[in-house]
Amino acid sequence: MRSAFFFEQRLNSHFSFGKLNGLFASKSFVRFAVVLWLTFACNNVFFQQLGSSVLIPSVFLLMLVNSLIVLLLSPGYLFKPMLTILIFASVSANYFSHHFGTMIDAHMLQNMFETNVSEANDLITWPFVRHLLLFAILPSLLVLLNKPRLQPIFKRTLQYSAALTSIMILLGGFALLQYQSLSGYFRMHKELRYYATPLNVVSATKRFVKDRLPKGDESFVTIASDVEFNAFSKKPTVFIVVLGETVRADHLALNGYSRNTNPKLSALPIVNFSQMTSCGTATAHSVPCMFSWMNKQNYDEFAAKHSENVVDIVARAGFDVMWRENDGGCKDVCNRVKTFDVTRSEQCEDGCPDKLLFSSLNELGVKPQNTLIVLHQQGSHGPAYFRRSEKANKQFLPECKDETFANCTPQEIINAYDNSLLETDSLLADLINKLSSLNNVNAGLLYVSDHGESLGENGVFLHGLPYAFAPKAQTEVPMLVWLSDSYQQEAKFDFNCLSNEATKPSSHDALFGSLLGLLSINIQTEKPLIDLVSKCRSQHVMG
C-alpha cells in the first residue's frame, strides 16, 4: 500500500497530475469547458446560416452570451443539475435543428410536452440516442464528477460576482463595438435566434413558463348570452367534423396536385375550400385556436382555455356532442363534452390506425338525434409517414421507412407522405358514403387540417416553425364540406353559392362561425365571428 501511494505521489509530481486534478476541480474551468462545448458542438446549424462577413464576430458574441447563461444558471448547488440539463437540452435541440430544420421556440416546447407516446417513439430513434451519447454524456460527466474545494461562502460569492461582472462588461463592450455590423444583419435574419443554442432553449423555456403562469381571473367565460338551434326539418341533424393532422393543401389533387391523392373524394359532391390558412403550425396551438371564438391575430391560449369554444356552443344548443381522439389529446377543446380515446385500444401498440377512429361510427343513425361528432385523426403525422397508411393505399413506391429520413431519397419521403393522404381520402369517402345511406337523418361532414407539413424544401422537415418564418407548406391547409341531399334541400343551402365562397381566401378564423351556420345555430354574442356558409342559405340569397 505504501509503495503504491509513493508511486502515485511521484507520478503526480512528475507529470503534474495534481495540477490537472486541481484544474478539473475548478468550477470556473468546468464552466469554461461547457461554454466551449455548447458554442462549438451545438451550433453547426446556426453557423451554417451566418454570412461570412459576420461569422467570426457572431461566434465571439455567442460565446459571451453562452458564458453569461452558464454563469446565471449554475450558482451554488445548482451547478451540477442545471448545467447537466442545459447540456442535454442543447444537444437535443441541435439534433432536431440539424436533421429536421426545427426552430426552437415556446410552441415547439409545448409540442414536446404535449406529444403522446406514439409520436415520441417516432422521434426518439437510435440516431438520436447515439447523438446524445456522443455529445451530451462526455461534458455531463465533466460536470457531475467535479469536486470543487471547499471555500468560505464569502470568497465563493465574491469570485462568482467578479466573474459575472466581468462577463457582462465584456458582453456589453463587444456588443457596442459590433453593433453596427451585427444589428442590421440580425434584424434582416430574425429566424437565426431560433438556431443559436442554448439561447434558443433558454428563451423558449422562459416564454413557455411565462405563458402558463396564472393571469388573474380563471373563471370560465360564457361568450354567448343566448344559443338557439333553428330546426329546419323533422329529421335530426347528424354532423361530423374530421380534424385532420399535418395535411398540406398543395398535396391534394383537389387543389391541383399532379398526383391523384384524392381518387375517391374527387368523385363525390363536395365543396373544396382551396385557399384556407391555419391558425398555427403545430397542433398544440392550432387546434384550440381554430375552435375558439378568437382569430389568429388576437388568440390567447389562457383566454381560450377559460372560455366557451364552438364545441361547447353546439352542446348548449341541445346537440349530443362526442369527441373521438386519436392524436394525443384535444388540447382542452373537449374538456366539457363526452370524449372517447381510441388510443387505449389493444390494436394501438405501434400507434392507432385512423380506421379505428372511423369504424367507431358503425351505430350512426340507430338512435337518431341531433349529433355532432369530432374525429381527431393521427392523419399524416410524421416523421413515420409510412405508418399512416394501410397496404391497400400504398400506391406511391418505394416509400421512406426511416424515421430520421437519413437513408431516404426526397422522393421516397414524399411517397410515404402522399400514401398517408390516400389513406385519409379513402376513410373520408367511405364515411361520406355511410352518411349518405342514412335516410332518417340530415347528414353533413366538414374536414379541415390543423396545419401543414414541410417535406424537405430548403432543408426543412415536419412542422412547428414560428408562423412568421413558416413556409406555405406548413400554413396552407385543406378544408372541405359535404352535405346530404336532404340536408341541402331542407336547410335550403345553395351549393353553387357555397362553391363560389370556397374559392375565396379564408382561414381557421372562420371555423367557429361557419360550423354554427352549417348547423343552423344562432347565438347572441359581442364577439366578432366569420360565417362563410349562412349567406348561402336561400333566405339570405333571395332576401
What would you say about this model in short?
By secondary structure, the chain is α/β, with parallel strands linked by helices.
Structure classification: alpha/beta
- Distance N to C terminus: 104 Å
Average residue pLDDT: 87
Compute the CA-based radius of gyration: 28 Å
- Main β sheet profile: 8 strands, mixed
**Strand arrangement across the biggest beta sheet:** 5-4-6-2-7-10-3-11
Number of helices: 22
Task: Quote the beta fraction.
Answer: 5-15%
Low-confidence parts: 1-20
Number of strands: 12
Shape: elongated
> Considering DSSP H and I runs of 4 or more, what fraction of the residues is helical?
40-55%
Explain what the structure shows.
About 45% of the residues are buried. The protein contains 22 helices and twelve strands. It has helices at about 1-15, 15-25, 25-40, 45-50, 55-75, 80-100, 105-115, 115-125, 125-135, 135-145, 155-190, 200-210, 285-290, 300-305, 310-315, 355-360, 410-435, 470-475, 485-490, 495-500, 510-520, 540, and strands at about 225-230, 235-245, 270-275, 320-325, 340, 370-375, 440-450, 455, 460, 475-485, 505, 520-525. It has an eight-stranded mixed β-sheet with strand order 5-4-6-2-7-10-3-11, with helices on both faces. Strands 1-12 form a two-stranded antiparallel sheet. Strands 8-9 form a two-stranded antiparallel sheet. The longest helix is centred in the first third of the chain and has 36 residues, at about 155-190. The protein has about 550 residues and is of the alpha/beta class.
